[in-house]
């Protein structure tokens, strides 16, 4: 690496502004962080979730990036060939809405922001390889979004169908189920409506079982649980009831409770509702169905008073032959199971609440062992497994999982039921009615139907001159010339699809594009496929059931297409917490609690900000910002600077042995290694701060200037390099090091120096702690007692008394009983 010219001597006072920009420019000019796949060392692909180019990196971006940057630097110094790229997730509604507000094109607004944010990343002091950067709104990138879509279409994994969808009235577009939070748009917070529309979907449900298998990826248990619950696999049976509108099949996870069914419930959207509704009940049913249509699925699933309406019709129980009233209720969803349920109020909480609300019968068919039963007026359902009762041939069988297979087998033999597995997961709705996204590469021909755009015609570029104010239909429809197309099948006149893709498509495979961002023959160069999977992927927990689930699905499809031999895109995933405002609330401009990292860098320098963000709290938890707290790291780096450039530390003479110094250095190195493995960044900084204190003391001793002192400073600086890269680089040059400190090998722990032959134990006298002694690890009881007797501050506590008993636990404690 070419070094910038430095004026000597250096100031004894730490001034980050005199060194940080200089080293950032030097690193960039020398290509220090440019990844070479042919370089020696085991590959390590480290990736943080790329940001949306909103215009400025906020403190949350810094928190998400500086700790993984330190980890990537550590891996590089340990001999790994580290790929650490960065791009921009640049399509989406925020850019479109900002452009509408400012009266500009989203493209210019987006790319101006990207240029600004790249500069901010540079001032952060990261080791990002910018030669591999791209934005998802680059035509060279979204060309491959479109190529993937056409491949999915040809494989039957992309399809269009009509149905109820989530609609955001503010953003004027549909939303995937995963983008609805608490009944509102997760982006703008507007209550979501339900509409019947024809939309594009990807068949993620084909991979539901595979997505429940996490054996090839190390994800936090919380993420695995969130994805598992979202997929919602349910094993049970489908049971068929006869109704006036024909056979109706319901799904149940508890077929052992079949004889406890006392009524049937249909979702308001169920296709048979109108046919099953009698003339007397029609007005009430139609009013209820209309009201349910104004609620989201989330609202319908919330706890509260159950609502419903009787259709006037009855189903026939397949075993008992009893008539079961058929109700319509919004707590049943048409998208789950078959859209109808057999209601067993004695053993299901929602059915119980509904039966109580409308005076419907409750029949016990599962009884807790040793119980006398529910009685005539049960106050709550029994949802345990228990024993089957009141069920004829099944009486006495254990309920639940233990006998479900046996019950289903008997019901199947009678033609009443069949085993069935269902999922909560629904296919991914990917069509959007907005402008700033990837155009869906489908051509609609009246003669040939929907046809994929041929590969040689990709990318289908977004037109520039479009009125994109939201109207509820795609803005692309307004560009009649753009819409005109030729059918690739028959050559006749046709029209382009005018929807754009959900931006989560962009981020589902972007980690592969970093392998070869300029490659023109496919989404990535097959010769580079060995760089996958990502070895460490970091980002927020909020993406657990959106981006992380979708990207896992995408990789599995790519595997089946022969593009990769990986089952998972990420070998290891870790989530950071959130930096909150000083008031403990999420930072927002409206609360006035936002912290601007640019202001902090201007005042304290990047290394200080990096240090504080790693020190503020456990990285995976986060915590509130403390304006005064950053002064501690600032003072620490001032002390670090003085150690290297300030001469011998001032202060009273200290007595520090070479063994003491080497123990402090190598035990700290050992701890830092373990903490990097665990990604425990706050304890790394704490350990380096503690070592600084030891080094200051050693500098006041006869060790100052000795070989042991030089070794200690050299190892200390190498340990600093991942955390505070600028000051470590300046120190490296100042001490005459060759090349860059970030090209050096990580120091090796001297195991003999990192352990002590002595141990400090507590001494109790008649049950009370009276002090500590330092003794050999192999010390006998007599030797430990002698050491305690030699300590006047301890020995005075049994002065004039007889020692009647000694209890010694080697390495832990000495207890002296005196009377």
UniProtKB/TrEMBL annotation:
An annotated GO cellular component of this protein is: cytosol
- One example of a Gene Ontology biological process annotation: leucyl-tRNA aminoacylation
| Enzyme kind, highest EC tier | ligase
Provide the Aminoacyl-tRNA synthetase class Ia domain boundaries.
425-614
Q: Which domain of life is it from?
A: Bacteria
Which reactions appear under catalytic activity for this entry?
tRNA(Leu) + L-leucine + ATP = L-leucyl-tRNA(Leu) + AMP + diphosphate
Report the residue ranges that make up the Methionyl/Valyl/Leucyl/Isoleucyl-tRNA synthetase anticodon-binding domain in this protein: 664-781
What name does UniProt use for this protein? Leucine--tRNA ligase
Where does this protein come from, organism-wise?
Answer: Deinococcus proteolyticus (strain ATCC 35074 / DSM 20540 / JCM 6276 / NBRC 101906 / NCIMB 13154 / VKM Ac-1939 / CCM 2703 / MRP)
């Amino acid at each position: 690496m070419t070094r910038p010219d430095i004026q000597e001597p250096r100031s004894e006072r730490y001034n980050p502004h005199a060194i940080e920009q200089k080293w950032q420019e030097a690193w960039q000019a020398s290509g220090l962080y440019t990844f070479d796949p042919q370089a020696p060392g085991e590959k390590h692909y480290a990736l943080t979730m790329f940001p949306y180019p909103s215009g400025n990196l906020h403190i949350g971006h810094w928190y998400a990036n500086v700790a993984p940057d330190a980890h990537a630097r550590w891996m590089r110094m340990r001999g790994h060939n580290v790929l650490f790229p960065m791009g921009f997730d640049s399509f989406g509604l925020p850019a479109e809405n900002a452009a509408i507000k400012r009266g500009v094109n989203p493209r210019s607004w987006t790319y101006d922001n990207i240029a600004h944010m790249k500069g901010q990343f540079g001032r952060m002091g990261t080791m990002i390889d910018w030669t591999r950067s791209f934005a998802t709104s680059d035509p060279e990138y979204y060309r491959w979004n479109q190529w993937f879509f056409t491949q999915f279409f040809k494989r039957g994994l992309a399809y269009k169908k009509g149905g109820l969808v989530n609609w955001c009235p503010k953003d004027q577009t549909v939303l995937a189920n995963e983008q609805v939070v608490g009944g509102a748009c997760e982006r703008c917070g507007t209550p979501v409506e339900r509409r019947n529309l024809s939309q594009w979907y990807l068949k993620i449900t084909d991979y539901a079982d595979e997505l429940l298998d996490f054996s090839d990826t190390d994800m936090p248990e919380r993420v695995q649980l969130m994805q598992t619950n979202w997929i919602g696999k349910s094993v049970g049976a489908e049971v068929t009831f006869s109704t006036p509108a024909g056979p109706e099949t319901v799904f149940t996870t508890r077929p052992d409770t079949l004889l406890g069914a006392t009524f049937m419930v249909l979702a308001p959207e169920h296709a048979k509702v109108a046919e099953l509704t009698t003339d007397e009940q029609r007005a009430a049913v139609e009013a209820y169905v209309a009201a349910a249509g104004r609620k989201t699925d989330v609202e319908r699933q919330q706890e509260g008073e159950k609502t419903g309406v009787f259709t006037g019709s009855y189903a026939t129980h397949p075993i008992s032959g009893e008539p079961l009233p058929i109700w319509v209720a919004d707590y049943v969803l048409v998208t789950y199971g078959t859209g109808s349920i057999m209601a067993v109020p004695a053993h299901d909480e929602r059915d119980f609440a509904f039966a109580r609300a409308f005076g419907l019968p409750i029949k016990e068919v599962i009884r807790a062992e040793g119980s006398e039963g529910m009685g005539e007026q049960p106050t709550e359902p029994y949802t345990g497994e228990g024993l089957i009762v009141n069920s004829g041939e099944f009486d006495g069988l254990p309920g639940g999982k233990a006998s479900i297979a046996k019950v289903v087998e008997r019901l199947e033999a009678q033609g009443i039921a069949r085993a069935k597995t269902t999922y909560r997961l629904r296919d991914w709705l990917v069509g959007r009615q907005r402008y700033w996204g990837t155009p869906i590469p489908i051509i609609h021909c009246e003669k040939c139907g929907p046809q994929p755009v041929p590969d040689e015609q990709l990318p289908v570029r977004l037109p520039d001159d479009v009125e994109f104010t939201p109207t509820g239909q795609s803005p692309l429809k307004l560009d009649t010339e753009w819409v005109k197309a030729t059918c690739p099948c028959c050559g006749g006149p046709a029209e382009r699809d005018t929807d754009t893709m959900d931006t989560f498509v962009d981020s589902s495979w972007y980690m592969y594009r970093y392998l070869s961002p300029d490659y023109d023959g496919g989404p990535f160069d097959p010769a580079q496929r060995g760089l996958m999977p990502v070895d460490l992927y970091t980002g927020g927990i909020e993406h657990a059931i959106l981006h992380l689930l979708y990207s896992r699905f995408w990789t599995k499809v790519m595997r089946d297409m022969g593009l990769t031999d990986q089952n998972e895109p990420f070998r290891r995933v870790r989530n950071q917490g959130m930096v909150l405002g000083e008031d403990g609330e999420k930072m927002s401009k409206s609360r006035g609690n936002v912290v601007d990292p640019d202001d902090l860098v201007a005042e304290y320098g990047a290394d200080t900000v990096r240090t504080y963000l790693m020190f503020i709290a456990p990285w995976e938890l986060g915590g509130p910002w403390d304006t005064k707290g950053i002064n501690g790291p600032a003072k620490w780096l001032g002390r670090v600077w003085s150690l290297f450039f300030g001469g011998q530390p001032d202060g009273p003479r200290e007595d520090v042995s070479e063994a003491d110094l080497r123990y402090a250095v190598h035990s700290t190195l050992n701890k830092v290694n373990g903490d990097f493995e665990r990604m425990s960044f706050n304890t790394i900084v704490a350990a380096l701060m503690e070592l600084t204190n030891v080094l200051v003391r050693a500098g006041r001793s006869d060790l100052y200037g000795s070989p042991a002192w030089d070794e200690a400073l050299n190892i200390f600086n190498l340990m600093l390099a991942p955390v505070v890269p600028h000051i470590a680089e300046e120190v490296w040059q100042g001490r005459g090091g060759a090349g860059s400190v970030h090209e050096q090998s990580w120091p090796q722990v001297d195991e003999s120096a990192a352990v002590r032959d002595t141990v400090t134990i507590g001494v109790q006298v008649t049950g009370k702690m009276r002090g500590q002694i330092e003794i050999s690890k192999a010390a006998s009881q007599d030797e430990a007692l002698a050491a305690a007797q030699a300590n006047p501050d301890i020995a005075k506590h049994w002065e004039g008394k007889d020692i009647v008993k000694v209890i010694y636990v080697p390495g832990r404690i000495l207890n002296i009983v005196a009377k």
